[in-house]
Amino acid sequence: MKLAIEEGIITKEERFGLHDLKRRGITDTKGTRHEKQEASGHRSASMMDIYDLSVPIVEWPSGDK
């Protein structure tokens, strides 16, 4: 990371860690929350609260718009 900043590949503001990559991978994975949990290897659903930053899709009740 230090070398990438020194070489001008990324800026200090663009710095990221390995867990950021994992978060992005889990968030971008298609499938249900359970499928994402299995793919990521997390044993508990509470870990998915940390790693899955997907925006939930909420459906409107029929007739209400």
Provide the gyration radius in Å: 17 Å
Major β-sheet profile = none
Secondary structure class reads: mainly alpha
Strand content: under 5%
Helix content: 40-55%
Shape: elongated
End-to-end distance: 48 Å
**Mean pLDDT across every amino acid position:** 86
| Stretches with pLDDT under 50, minimum 5 residues | none
What do you see in this structure?
- The protein is an all-alpha fold and 65 residues long.
- Helix content is 48%, strand content 0%.
- The longest helix is centred in the middle third of the chain and has 11 residues.
- The protein is elongated and about 55 Å long.
- The termini are far apart.
- The mean pLDDT is 86.
Essential attributes:
65 residues, elongated
Task: Indicate the topology.
Blueprint: H1 2-6, H2 18-28, H3 33-40, H4 45-51
Quick recap:
The chain is elongated. It has helices at 2-6, 18-28, 33-40, 45-51.
